[in-house]
Amino acid sequence: MKSLLVVGVIVLLLLIGGCSGYKNLVSLDEGAKAQWSQVDVQLQRRYDLIPNLVSTVKGYAAHEKGVFDDVANARQAYTGAATTNDQAKAAGNVEGALSRLLAISENYPNLKADASFLALQDQLEGTENRISVERKRYNDDVQALDTALRSPFSAFINIFAHIAPRDYFNPPAAVQAVPKVDFSAAPAVTPAPAPAAPVPAGGPIGAP
Question: Considering the domain boundaries, does residue 18 fall inside one?
């Protein structure tokens, strides 16, 4: 009788621990999912700026078709991504393509001085800063979830929860930083020559 009581207590403790572990995994997963929604809001702000950016660059560098195609294809891949992990990967590709698009301006001084670019500078830089903040928060949530999933007890509980690990949302290796727009450097202007000295009414000095 006493042994049955001990077994019952152990089973009860396991059930309580299992329920607690299950709720913890679900809570961590839902937290990461909610944080990705915040990332997505900022990514959409970036994508809303891309058409105007591409249109402005085309006005000065229409022959850079390969870069424009890369941006369009990367953006389309994000829209068609089925999972959060796929979206994170596609967003990184958009970031890389956008960085290459912005690099074009270095070869076109008139483009760097364009009024539309100057307006886009503030909007895009602010958006990229917000993406960076939300990215860090999301990666922190992913780290907490993935760490929990690696523990033996949680791995057993996850047989019933069916929660998949999440990928970190990192910048692509080719970028290593959020794309930045710097159009503040105006093209060099050659100073106008100094005006010639006026000639005296009687003619040049020393003339006969």
Answer: no
Average pLDDT of the residues in 13-41: 83
How far is residue 140's CA from residue 142's CA, in Å, rounded to a whole number?
Answer: 5
Identify whether the C-beta of residue 135 lies closer than 8 Å to the C-beta of residue 177.
no
pLDDT at residue 201, rounded to an integer: 52
The answer to whether the beta carbons of residues 54 and 68 sit under 8 Å apart is: yes
Q: What span, in angstroms and rounded, lies between the C-alpha atoms of 47 and 98? A: 10
Of residues 108, 138, 143, the one with CA closest to residue 37:
138
Question: Average of pLDDT values for 153-159?
Answer: 84
Instruction: Please give the angle made by the CA atoms of 118, 123 and 125, to the nearest 5 degrees.
Output: 90
Residue 135, CB half-sphere, CA atoms under 13 Å: how many? 19
Instruction: Pick the more confident residue, 184 or 125.
Output: 125
Q: What is the pLDDT of residue 7?
A: 59
Number of domains in the chain: 1
Exposed/middle/buried for residue 14 (C-beta within 10 Å: 0-12, 13-18, 19+): exposed
DSSP state of 107: G
- pTM, two decimals, is 0.71
pLDDT of residue 1: 65
How long, in residues, is the chain?
A: 208
**Residue 176 forms part of a structural domain:** no
Q: Is the pLDDT of residue 16 over 70?
A: no
- Answer whether residue 198 is part of any domain: no
